[in-house]
Amino acid sequence: MRMDTETISYVLEGHELQNDVQTMIQVFLANRHYIRTDTVTDAEITVKSEMKEGIASAMLYRRGEKASAWSMEYDEKMLTEKEQQRIIKRTIFELLKAETGIRPQWGLLTGVRPAKLISSLLEEGKTDKECLAFLTEDYLVMPHKAALALKVAKAERKILEDNRPEEISLYIGIPFCPTRCLYCSFTAYPLHQYKNRVDEYLDAMFRELDWLAAYSRSFVMKNIYIGGGTPTSLDEAQLERLLQKVEELFHPDESMEYTVEAGRPDTITREKLRLLKEYGVNRISINPQTMNDKTLRAVGRKHTVEDIRRVFREAREEGHQNINMDLILGLPGEDAADVRNTMEEIMKLAPDNVTVHTLAVKRASRLREELAQHDMTTAEALEEMLDISAEYAERMGMEPYYMYRQKNMVGNFENVGYCHPGKEGIYNVQIMEEKQTILAAGAGASTKTVDPETDRIERVFNVKSIEDYIGRIEEMIERKRTGLPQGGNI
Fold first, then answer.
1. φ, ψ of residue 12 in degrees (nearest 5)
2. Is 155 helix (H, G, I), strand (E, B) or coil?
3. Which secondary-structure segment (H or E) carries 68?
4. Other CB atoms closer than 10 Å to residue 284's CB: what's the count?
5. Is there a contact between 39 and 64 (Cβ–Cβ < 8 Å)?
6. Beta strand residue intervals within 300-377, DSSP E
7. How far apart are CA 288 and CA 477, in angstroms?
8. What are 289's strand-pairing partners?
């Protein structure tokens, strides 16, 4: 049944689990406008979620007329908050599965971190079999996705077991790109508009880094990650200024994972690759997204597949031995054959890590604004693409080691990081599993503190605007001064 209306309304009765209702609807009917109303109206599509007298129901209305419903009984005496959430999601899942013909492979799970859920069960002493049963029976996750979650959870736990309370990480944001990609929703600004303010931005950020360096002296810095945007959109002199500042303040050595997103090949030069190596960067990302020239042009990437090959070869020649490559499945116009071609080309290059992303249509992206103009991938096609990427990762000798999910992902699938043994991206796991404090500097950066004893998480945000960040840098520092724990272990 077609459900391509732009707006979906929903009604709650007998409960207030608005987020659970909306996120479950979004699994089936993504990239719409969602409105909560008090009663069923004559809107084209309305979903009503109801709990009363031991019966939970989900009902679908078309222009005010009930079209279908799905109900289940529950024991009010045994109704915990988590069980109530599960029941509400289950009724909507069954209703919309019947209406749309879609069977989401992650079942009732709508959260960002499915592996984190499994990790908590393993910590409780649950067996592998019990973990898999929890996902497949209680949350209707397909068996192969449950097996993936368990595998990733175990890989992540192996990394996280080495954490120490005194260890922290650092994120440095460079919010500039040569152009803005069709799908991008990050804090990233076209370099040509801000080229005269880049040095001013670095000056402001260095003041924030000075403060963070002083704050972090009582801790052990384990990971440094320079991301964006595209850090290599800085010219050689600016990049060296940044690398010198990091060296001066944080003294990176071989005990740290030190990553720079070299990102887009059209920003990378041999000299920049040499500088990264000279200043101790031991992990870089060269991110093609696809190895098909027609797609690169369509999504606004100003480089070619041959540029990717050239830059990768130069990175190896300059001594980089831990190179990640990011890919996106489901880009407009691509099919399974395009993905197979991408994976063949990636396999020839032999990177150390591959991160496979499923396209997410974010509100802040041009893609969201232009959605009707693009030929979007179906969930069925994307499932085949994911299978192809997993097949090639295995052929390259890689294993999945981290995973996360996002809202409005095509097909409600997942992003998976694969790597050769010993080449895991440790920072990726730390930020995703939220087991370590991560200090952050730069426009749009978010500092996150984690109390290792209670797992309590606090966040301190920076403003996103370049102008505001430069003009209000003292306020950004003051936010950290008042928002971060003072002294002792975080």
1. -110, 140
2. helix
3. strand 65-73
4. 28
5. no
6. 323-329, 353-358
7. 35
8. 327
Residue position matching structure tokens 């978010």 = 446
Number of H helices, E strands in the chain: 17, 18
Terminal Cα distance for the chain, rounded: 52
C-alpha to C-alpha distance for 206 and 362, rounded to whole angstroms: 31
**456 Cβ contact list (under 8 Å, min separation 6):** 450
Burial classification of residue 363, based on how many CB atoms lie within 10 Å of its CB (0-12 exposed, 13-18 middle, 19 or more buried): exposed
The one-letter code for the residue type at 389 is S
* 238-276: burial string, b at 16+ Cβ within 10 Å, e else: bbbbbbebbeebbebeeebbbbbbbbbbbbbeeebbbbb
**Other CB atoms within 10 Å distance of the CB of residue 452:** 16
Nearest to 355, CA basis, from 441, 427, 452, 455: 427
Name which of 225, 284, 280 is nearest 254 in CA terms. Answer: 280
Distance, in Å, from the CA atom of 47 to the CA atom of 424, rounded to the nearest integer, reads 43
Beta carbons of 463 and 442 less than 8 angstroms apart: no
Distance of CA 3 to the CA centre of its chain: 27
Q: What percent of the chain has pLDDT over 70?
A: 91
Cis before 14? omega within 30:
no
Quick one: 13 exposed, middle or buried, by C-beta within 10 A (0-12, 13-18, 19+)? middle
User: Could you tell me the two tokens for 6?
Assistant: 């732009």
pLDDT, one tens digit per residue, over 22-75 is: 999 988 987 788 999 999 999 999 999 999 999 999 999 999 999 999 999 999
329, β-bridge pairs: 358
Structure tokens at 369: 């604004």
DSSP letter for each residue of 209-256: HHHHHHHGGGSEEEEEEEEES-GGGS-HHHHHHHHHHHHHHH---TTS
Half-sphere exposure of 266 (CA within 13 A, CB side): 14
> Whose structure tokens read 């959605």?
371
Residue 116 backbone phi and psi in degrees, to 5: -65, -35
If one counts every other C-beta atom within 10 angstroms of the C-beta of residue 190, the result is 13
Taking alpha carbons only, the member of 441, 462, 412 closest to residue 24 is: 412
Buried b / exposed e along 413-439 (16+ C-beta atoms within 10 A): bbbbbbbbeebbbbbbbbbbbebbbbb
What CA–CA distance (Å, rounded) separates 356 from 325?
Answer: 9
Which tokens is 76 given? Answer: 């009010």
pLDDT digits (tens, 9 = 90+) for 421-469: 999 999 999 998 898 999 999 999 999 999 878 889 999 999 999 999 9
Residues 406, 396: Cα–Cα separation, whole Å: 26
Residue 320 in tokens? 């980089």
